[in-house]
Amino acid sequence: MKIVDSQVHIWYPDTPERPWPPAIPGVKPHRDRPFVVEDLLAEMRAAGVDRAILTPVTFDGARNDKMLEAARLHPDRFAVMGRLLVNDPEIRGKIATWKQQPGMLGVRVNFFLAEHRVCLSDGTADWFWSVAEKAGVGIMIYVPGNLPPVKKIAERCPDLKLIIDHMGSPHGSKDDAAFAHIGELCEIARFPNVAVKVGALPVYSSEPYPHPKLHQHVRRAYDAFGPKRLFWGSDLTRLQCSYRLSITMITEEMKWLSSTDLEWIMGKGVCKWLGWPLPE
Q1: Is 32 helix (H, G, I), strand (E, B) or coil?
Q2: 157: β partners
Q3: DSSP-assigned beta bridge partners for residue 230
Q4: Are the C-beta atoms of 58 and 113 separated by less than 8 Å?
Q5: Are 76 and 272 in contact (CB under 8 A)?
Q6: Residue 279 CA neighbour count, 13 Å, CB half
Q7: Which residues does 111 contact at the CB level (< 8 Å), separation at least 6?
């Protein structure tokens, strides 16, 4: 079974040659030191992860250069879901050729910050979904605690492939409170163009491994979306447990998953969804 992590961040130091944008209140690096591609490769080897999809960190701005460089140097290991700002008028003309960038699979849009979240309600982002749909650009969408916009987008753009990050759980929530919206999430499964990232699961638990309270919520998502639309992701740099335990929580502790289910959830599904073929 090939293991493909659907979400990992890397970032580099804040230097005069490549300075970070101005600090955003409440946003800071996940670790005290930069986490560069060599660090990630070492962690992947130790945990048995074959591939990873690199996603941007908010504090580095709307830049994808270091992630694309990693994909260029290690095309068998990395691909990228790049960042853009939907309220940036200069980005509109770039979507049609977005996937022509070597290593680029699609876009991850983050509506965690209030200044970005408002784009979903004031019409600022409306142009983006249909343009991405026309260009065949898949989207990872981070909307913690705010699923109604996803339902509207999926209905309006039926050929746009969407992945809901972290099961839509509110930022900072734990245990059952993190999944109080699970019924709403499962209702979205009726749209065949929507998948779900079961990402960063240990982050949403106050219990030690294997985080038993979370299993029932993953099971409900599995029953609604099926294994082909459920994608494991670690969000490694936010974890308080080891990389390997974030894998075995699913592969060893969720006994109701078959070996075929695990193939899809642990890598095959996201690669097929985003068009990153696995080797035979």
Answers
A1: coil
A2: none
A3: 196
A4: yes
A5: no
A6: 7
A7: 117, 119, 120, 141, 142, 143, 146, 149
> CB-hemisphere CA count at 13 Å for 55?
21
For the chain, give the number of residues. Answer: 280
Q: What is the CATH number of domain 4-274?
A: 3.20.20.140
The domain limits of the chain are: 4-274
CB 221 within 8 A of CB 187: no
The pLDDT tens digits of the residues spanning 76-122 come to 999 999 999 898 888 889 999 999 999 999 999 999 888 788 889 89
**pTM tops 0.70:** yes
- Of 23, 101, 33, 98, whose CA–CA distance to 59 is shortest? 23
| First CA to last CA distance, the chain | 11
Q: How many CB atoms lie within 10 A of CB 105?
A: 24
pLDDT tens for each residue of 164-186 = 999 999 989 999 999 999 999 99
Helix (H, G, I), strand (E, B) or coil at 244: helix
Tell me whether the omega of the peptide bond preceding residue 210 falls within 30 degrees of 0, making it cis.
Answer: yes
What's the order of all strands across the beta sheet hosting 162-164?
A: 4-8, 51-54, 78-83, 104-110, 138-142, 162-164, 194-199, 230-233
